Every structure is written in structure tokens, then in C-alpha cells.
């Protein structure tokens, strides 16, 4: 019987295993500086933070997970996935690190964990950016002091405004799907978990299928940030065509990797969905 | 900074990632009933036993690792690798689960751990066979009572003869390379670690290369057990040819998977070698 922290680690590993996952590193594709093996090391390194998430403060657990994850040469492998997994582990735990049983991991409970975050959690979240480079947009003019790229330097402004981690995500929920999950009860995460559980076949094959479904459903906000809205919509439409069987998903994967267009937020949602499905009894 | 248990887990993941590793599951190949994702789940499930290995009794830690590893649908994914990793984790640990520093992980120290095992360790080793099917030869006539396939039923005989885990491996060292490592200071493990550290490139690519080198060097005892001496020698010769560049290692990999001939003991040695290299500072 795996603990929530172990299921979270397995979710990270199954996510990167799933192929084809167009544009992202998977079992069959990688980038010159971002390799499959870096994701293995990232998942192992996150271990301590994932275990802490069952009982320690959310922000501190997340920072620890990121620091451990970043201890490999690929850089940012699983930042967004860990940001989703940490509150979900807490929601799935009874406080001592054991699983509290599948009935406990609900959108309501996950929403409660998110809403209960503190200013200290927000400060730890900002400090996590010290360990790794994350692609983010320029903030609105009135939020420059809160730019996550400032890392620990932004903490005084966070404290002065009394912002909790939930508050931080509320301000970026319109342009970042991980933040949107945080402030809305993780709807796409739980929907992905249901789809993974409902499909047949190998878990990694199901995860690849659900990746395409999520991507076809909504433009990836990481692609929007890096390449703009129209590229994100084009990728989303291409995923829909591949999903219908009109084009080959492997060809799309080759094309996106060639162009360096990686729908990373969609991959994060798949990892979170895998976690929820595993907690609810999915067998591997 | 990863703990020894974390490095052991990473070694398991990097081993199965390494491709081509002719005849074994790797990033590019798998068997219908033994999939890449089963190795991910096996490595995660072994987690608790690997952590225990830093301080708890060797046999009990191993049994716990096997029980956790077996909690997936593929069956026996990493039995031999864990059997090598557990004493090596102990040798690399200062007793509280932290790494004791690279200078501590020596063949001498690993040999000492093996030699210090008890009758209770042997009993736990036998109990581990209750969790999983392992391919082994029929024992010699005078050792039928000690057939590992008897699992816990063999424990009274073990206790009656006062056999330690080291004693058990002494009796099979002539036909099982994992046992031979145990009773001889892990020579091929440490040699593999040195080769992995000396090569350039991605760690998983180095591991695949060292797999071929080990296989070319000596017939795989798992193949001997399942297919006989002549098949094992043929596979070894084919590995040597692929290593020289005279044939394509990927073609050899396709051929062996097609025939179901998996040099599993050689893969176990690669996992153990990866662990030693990681403990000694190899970066991923």
C-alpha cells in the first residue's frame, strides 16, 4: 500500500513515461538539455518534500520538493506538477503521512487545503523560485513588487500586503492553469483522474490519451506564456485533430519537439490526475 | 543531496531507462506482461525497504523492499537489483539514513556488511520469496530443504543448520552472479561503477554501454538458469560483437526480446554499479 507521497512520486514517473505527449519529454522524446533521466532524478529528489506535504506547512513542503527536484542537470523538470501535488497530498493524508482512504480525496477537501494557506506559505512559494528558472509572464504594473522572479526579494511585499498563497494564485488564475486549479477545487485534475480511471489499457497509455484530451479541450497556458495565444490555440486544435484520429499524434509530437513548443501545464495536470487516480485505487 | 536510499531508487530508475539493454525492459522495449511502468512502480514501492536498509536488519529491509516492489502487475521487476542494493545502502550509510560520504562505500565495507549477516537475515530472505516469483535452478539433492522456492517453509531448515544469509549465498555463488557479488566484495559492481564514472555523456547511455561490457565479459547467470549455458554464451558473444561495433546493439535488443532471453543479472549489476557511482558523486 503506497503512501500519498509515494503515489505522488509514481504519478511524476508515469507522467513522463506516457508517450506520445506532444511537445513534452516522454519515454520516446527529449530535448538536448532536458532529458528523460532528469525527470527520474527530479522525481527522486522531490521525495522528501512530498513526504513533508502530508503534515508540514504547504509552502515549506513545496519549497523542499523544488529544492530536491532541482538537484539534477536538466533544470526545471516538475515545478508545476509539484505545485499541484503538494496540496493534493495533504488533502489525501490523515496527517501522519499515511493515506486517509480514497473517500477523503475530494475537490472540496483539496479546495479547503488551498484556502487554508498562509502568508508564510506564500513566502516559501516565492523562495522556491530561488532554486530553479520558471517561465512566467511579466506581471501587471501594479504587481511588479510581487513578480515571482524576484524570489525571496518579494517576500517583504508579500508580508506587507498579508497575502496568502491562495491570494497569490487568485491573482494569476486568469493566465495560469495551475493557479486556476488551486483556486477552483482542482476541476481539471479531478476530471483527468476520472478519465484515466475510466479508460482501459496500460496506465501510461491512458495518461497519454488524457494529455491529448486536456490539450484539445483548452490551450496550454505555459505555451501561451512562452509563444502567445495563437500558437497555443493552434497546438490545441492540432491535439483535437490527433485525438480524432485524423492525424498521427506521434507526428505532432515530433513537430512540437522540433519547434520547442512544450505544453507543460497540460503535463502538470496529467501528473496531478494520475495522483488522484492512484489514490482512488488505480492499479499499475 | 540525496540519501543512499534515494540514490538506490534513482539507480533502479536509471537502469531501466538505459537503452538499448539487449533482452531487458528499457525505455524503448518491453514484454507484453512486463512493462516499463511496472519498473517505475517497483522502484517507488521499494522505497520503504530501501530506507530501512540504512539502519534496520539487512534481511528484514530486503523483505520489505521486495514486498513493496511487488505491489504492481508486472511481478518480479527488481529482485536481484534490490538484493545487491540493500547491503550497499548499509555500507554507504552512517546508520541514521544519511550518506556517510563517498570514502565509506568501499568493497571492504560492503563485504563486511555481507559477512555480518545473521540467521534471521537468511530467514527474512526466504520469506521475501513469498511475495514474488523468481527464476531459480533446482537445488542440489542435499539442499532440497533449502530451496528458496519453499519460501517461509524453508526457514526451520535454515534455523536448524544455523545458516546466515552470507552462508546461503556461499552455496549458490558458483551459479548466481548476485550471490557471487555478495560473497566476494561486490567486484563487478564496483568495476561497473568505475566504468560508469569514467565514460562521458548521459548517465543512462553510459549505463547501457556498461551493460554490454558486463554481458560481453561473462555469461549472464539468469540466462544460464532459464536457457542453459550455451544460450548464455551465445548472448555473451553477441554482446561482444555489438560492443565492437560489428553489429547493431538495437538489433540484438530486438532479437533477444523477441526470443524472451533477458540477461537480468547483468541488469542487476548495472543498477548496483549506478548506485555506487551516484554515492561517489556522479551527477545526473
Automatic annotation (TrEMBL), chains A, B:
GO terms for molecular function: ATP binding; triphosphoribosyl-dephospho-CoA synthase activity. It holds the Pfam family CitG. InterPro entries: CitG. It comes from the Archaea. Gene3D superfamilies: Triphosphoribosyl-dephospho-CoA protein. This is Triphosphoribosyl-dephospho-CoA protein. It comes from Halococcus saccharolyticus DSM 5350.
